Structure formats: C-alpha cells, structure tokens
Amino acid sequence: MARYREAVCRLCRREGQKLFLKGQRCLTDKCAIEKRNFPPGQHGKSRRPKPQGYGIQLREKQKVRRLYQILENQFRNYFEKAASRKGVTGETLLLMLEQRLDNVVYRLGLATSRAEARQLVRHGHIEVSGRKVSIPSFHVVPGQEVAVREKSRKLEAIQRSLDLAGNRGVPPWLALDRENLKAQVVSVPKREDVNFPIQEQMIVELYSK
Questions:
Q1: Which of 3, 17, 188, 203 has its CA 20 to 30 A from that of 63?
Q2: Could you tell me if 96 and 137 are in contact, meaning their C-beta atoms sit under 8 angstroms apart?
Q3: Exposed (0-12), middle (13-18) or buried (19+): which is 33, by Cβ within 10 Å?
Q4: Helix or strand or coil: residue 139?
Q5: C-alpha to C-alpha distance for 77 and 71, rounded to whole angstroms
Q6: Does residue 195 surpass a pLDDT of 90?
C-alpha cells in the first residue's frame, strides 16, 4: 500500500505550523518548527511571494490531508462523498475525517499521534463493539464502543500515551473509560470539536473549479 515515507517534519515546515505528526516530540524544543520555521529545500530561507487564490486553497487542502495523514486519492474520495450528502460540504468532510477509527484512537489518547494510532489499528490492538478491526479508515458511528483488545491492554506504549495525553482532553462526542481502556461513541462530532485552525471552505472552492 502506498504511503508517505519521507521525514514528516518537512510537512510541518512546508505548511508553516505544527501538524503534530510526531506526537510528544512536537511539544518539545526538538520540534522542527522551533528550530527551522521555514519551508524545506534549497531555497527555503529565500523570500517567496505569499500564496494567493489557488495557492491559498491548495495549501489548506494539503494541510488537512497531511494532518489526518491521508493520500491524495483517499482525500478526494472523502470530498466526493461529503459533496453528495446533505449539509455544508466542508463541515461534512471534516466530520467524516474525525470519525475515522485511527483518529478516534488518537483523540482518546491511546496514541500520541495519528500515525501511532494507525499502527495500533493495523496490528489488531483495537476492537469496535467487540470485534477486531484492523482498518484505520473504519467509520465509527454513535452507539459503538471502541476498546483496546484484552490481550493488548498491558502494552507500555498505550499506558505511556494516556499519561502524556492527560492535558489534551477527550472531545465531548466520545466518553472514555480510562480504567478499562474503552470508550463509547455518544454522538457524531460537531464542527467546534475539530480543534485545529482549518478553513474548509477553501478546500471546497479548490475542488469546485
């Protein structure tokens, strides 16, 4: 399966802000943005004209795609599904991304980054409503229970992630039972639950051309 294999810190530098792709490292002075807050490449430090029009829309799309760590074709498929549903397309797109299983695992604090959450899902450590699910893009819905499988509950990485995620908080559409390493999906997420600066209308305008 195709996936991005280069240094992820380059992605944050290209977007000019932290995308929290390396978990706890992003909160330390080792973060690339703290050391080299300019685009990667030979001419990264040179003055570049500010993006306008299409450039702004493209950067917003790339930022969201990289935040959720989704490939281009996957992202376009999500957009087309969002566009076919009732409601505001941009908001629907973000909420669909929020309901991905790997994002839910990250939001619950069971992993320090979405990449780590994806690995937990891929390796079969997560179950949904009592059944093992190893597909990171699995779409969770209200009423389902997301839990760490019994044999995986003593994993040191999960316990460490929970301790580090203490200040991050759990969104109100998820109810975490930390002691038993499980959570209930109590509702669909709302736009205000996406706690990252995103201008989703720019993405809609980009794909509408």
A1: 188
A2: no
A3: middle
A4: strand
A5: 10
A6: no
H-only helix segments in the chain: 9-15, 32-35, 54-67, 72-83, 89-98, 101-107, 114-122, 156-164, 200-207
pTM: 0.83
81-136 confidence digits (pLDDT tens): 999 999 999 999 999 999 999 999 999 999 988 989 999 999 999 999 999 999 99
Strand partners, 79: none
Element (H, E) at 132: strand 131-132
Going by C-alpha positions, the residue among 40, 95, 102 that lies closest to residue 70 is 102
Which structure tokens are listed for 66?
């990289």
132 touches 120 (CB < 8 A): no
CA dist 15 → 19, 68, 103, 122, 153 (Å): 8, 14, 20, 28, 36
Q: What are the pLDDT digits (tens) for 50-85?
A: 777 888 899 899 989 988 989 999 999 999 999 999
Cross-sheet strand order for the sheet of 145-148: 131-132, 126-128, 145-148, 182-185, 174-177
Q: Are 19 and 11 in contact (CB under 8 A)?
A: yes
Structure tokens at 158: 């999960």
